[in-house]
Amino acid sequence: MSQELTIAEALSVRAAISRKIDELRSERGNNTTVYVDKNETPEYPSRSVDVITAELDGVQKDYRKLDVLIAQANLANTIAWDGGEITILEAIELAKQTRQEMNAYHYLGQQKKRERLRSGGGTGEAAALYQYALYEPETYHQLTQKRTREVTKLSALIERANHTNMIAFDASKYMA
Question: 72: closest CA among 8, 7, 16, 17?
Fold first, then answer.
C-alpha cells in the first residue's frame, strides 16, 4: 500500500533504509560462524545468514525504488532560477558546484596582491623575493560573498520544493 510522502520525508526514509542496510550487513557478518569449545553445545544466532540475506535483498530493492522515485521527482519538478526554470536535479548539482567554486574563490580572495617571501641572498647582498597575484584578490573575496548568498537562496528553494513535491512510496516498514 503506497502512501504519499514529500521529498523531504522520502530523503529521511532513504537515510533510514541506508542505515537498515548497514545493520543487516553487519548482522549477517556476525552470524556467519559460531565458536564452540570441544564437547560444548553451540549457541546459534536467532537468525540465519539466509534469512538475513533475504531481508537485505528486500530492503535494498526498497532503497533502489525510493532512490529512483526521488530522482524522477527531482527531474520532473522545477524551480525558478536566474530568470528561467531549472529542474530540482539541476539545482542540486548547481548548488554542489557553486559550493566547490566558493572554496576556490575563498582561497583566492584571502591571498595578498603582493607578498614579500624572503630576503637575503647567498652572496651577502640583501635580495628580496616577492610574490604577485596575477588577479585581484578583492574581486574573488566579493565573488565569494555573492556566491554564498546565491547558494543559500538556491538551497532554500530546493528545500521548499522538497517540502511540497510528493511521491508515492510505502514507507510503513521504515517509519511509524
Answer: 7
